[in-house]
């Protein structure tokens, strides 16, 4: 029995803001004839399944897949439907007006040269201006996007980063992803003052040499540790983002890393697996790098065990969040990505071009892409499709829209992930 989670749930039950928003969500969904109190309870239990709850300031981080609760952004996620009627039914069949989360690649400039960077081999035109990014953000919020992630490259190289963050109002949760380069305490405080909720800092290992080798920089490790400390001191929800290689999916190694990350200031450790993208598309012996089902299941078991240890930060993994048991792969449905020059992709790791925000509004582009993608998938879309994407593009990514459409048709899912099936 997870006494830590039980204690946190009791803490939440005594919080009047939690009660208020639980009632608010219930009142929004109860207008749908398919909605019942039992389904509401099941929905919340499914969200909490396998998760450690973290209290941060006056909010609770239930899952990094969702905005914190209670918050205006969480309400945004609930109401992001195609029609104001039958919202619950639309949500449980993944009929959305916007992705739950979208990552905006503010720049492709970066001081590092990471081994598994997903942005390699992509053609890059002129990056969006401050005004153009703010227009995209405004449109995304009007659509109902509840999490807006700012990424790169290295987003901190943009001098207008604070202005861009300030454009994200409370309807969405703002997250920044960084290598930590030159993230001083002063800059971290300014990010917080601009409206940033959370920061994800790349850290691959507690071994300085290994992290630096992965990043091809002899300063990367020191930058990351300093950034963790400064982020925590500035009052930001602080995450470590780590790519765990197949050979390192080991409980003792990972538990050592979790403790190290927590000691350095992390509230959460997000585990990414190597994705068939970037330089990995041309790497030989890829089976030695990419996870197989057995490795993925082993990681999920380690994650769940770690989340019952009170001294560890919250542990999350794509292996679990995007599994059939949870939400599935959300590329183009629950999650999306805009490149530095304004092109819409299904996700960070799937370089298929569905149009430019300079030519048409993001709301129109996303609706068209979403209709072609279909429902959330069982299994990572990038792992299944990227070899064909790369070949059709003849190595010159992103793949044009017309060719991308055929890949979408070939990979449409007929089965919903369990989170959705349980509520249908």
Automatic annotation (TrEMBL):
Residue ranges occupied by any Radical SAM core domain in the UniProt entry: 96-313
Keyword Metal-binding: yes
Keywords of this entry: Iron, Iron-sulfur, Metal-binding, S-adenosyl-L-methionine
GO biological process, one term: heme biosynthetic process
Signal peptide: none
Entry keyword annotation includes ATP-binding: no
Any one GO molecular-function label of the UniProt entry: metal ion binding
InterPro entries according to UniProt: 4Fe4S-binding_SPASM_dom, Aldolase_TIM, Elp3/MiaA/NifB-like_rSAM, Radical_SAM_PqqE_MftC-like, rSAM, rSAM_sf
CDD domains (UniProt xref): Radical_SAM (cd01335)
Short name of any one Pfam family annotated for the protein: SPASM
Protein name: Radical SAM superfamily enzyme, MoaA/NifB/PqqE/SkfB family
Organism listed in the record: Desulfonispora thiosulfatigenes DSM 11270
């Amino acid at each position: 029995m997870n006494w830590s989670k039980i204690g946190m749930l009791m803490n939440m039950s005594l919080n009047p803001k939690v009660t208020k928003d639980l009632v608010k969500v219930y009142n929004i969904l109860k207008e749908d004839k398919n909605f019942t109190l039992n389904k509401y309870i099941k929905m919340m239990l499914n969200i909490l399944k396998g998760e450690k709850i973290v209290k941060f300031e006056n909010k609770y981080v239930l899952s990094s897949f969702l905005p914190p609760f209670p918050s205006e952004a969480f309400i945004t996620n609930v109401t992001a439907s195609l029609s104001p009627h039958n919202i619950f039914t639309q949500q449980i069949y993944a009929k959305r007006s916007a992705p739950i989360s979208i990552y905006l690649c503010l720049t492709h400039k970066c001081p590092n040269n990471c081994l598994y960077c997903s942005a390699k081999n992509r053609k890059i035109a002129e990056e969006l201006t401050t005004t153009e990014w703010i227009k995209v953000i405004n449109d995304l919020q009007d659509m109902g996007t509840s999490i807006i992630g700012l990424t790169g490259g290295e987003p901190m190289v943009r001098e207008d980063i604070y202005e861009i963050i300030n454009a994200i109002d409370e309807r969405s949760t703002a997250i920044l992803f960084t290598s930590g380069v030159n993230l001083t305490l002063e800059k971290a405080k300014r990010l917080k003052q601009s409206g940033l909720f959370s920061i994800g800092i790349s850290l691959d290992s507690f071994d300085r040499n290994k992290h630096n080798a992965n990043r091809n920089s002899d300063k990367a490790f020191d930058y990351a540790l300093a950034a963790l400390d400064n982020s925590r001191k500035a009052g930001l929800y602080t995450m470590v983002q780590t790519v765990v290689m197949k050979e390192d999916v080991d409980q003792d190694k990972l538990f050592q890393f979790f403790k190290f990350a927590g000691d350095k200031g992390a509230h959460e450790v997000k585990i990414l697996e190597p994705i068939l993208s970037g330089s990995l598309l041309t790497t030989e012996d890829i089976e030695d790098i990419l996870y197989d089902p057995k490795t993925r299941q082993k990681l999920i078991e380690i994650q769940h065990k770690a989340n019952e240890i009170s001294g560890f930060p919250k542990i999350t993994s794509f292996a679990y969040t995007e599994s059939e048991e949870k939400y599935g792969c959300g590329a183009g449905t629950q999650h999306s990505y805009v490149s530095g020059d304004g092109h819409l992709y299904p996700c960070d790791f799937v370089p298929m071009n569905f149009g430019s925000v300079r030519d048409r509004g993001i709301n129109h582009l996303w609706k068209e892409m979403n209709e072609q993608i279909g429902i959330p998938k069982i299994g990572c879309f990038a792992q299944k499709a990227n070899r064909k994407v790369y070949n059709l593009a003849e190595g010159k990514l992103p793949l044009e829209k017309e060719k991308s459409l055929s890949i979408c048709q070939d990979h449409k899912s007929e089965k919903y992930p369990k989170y959705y099936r349980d509520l249908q």
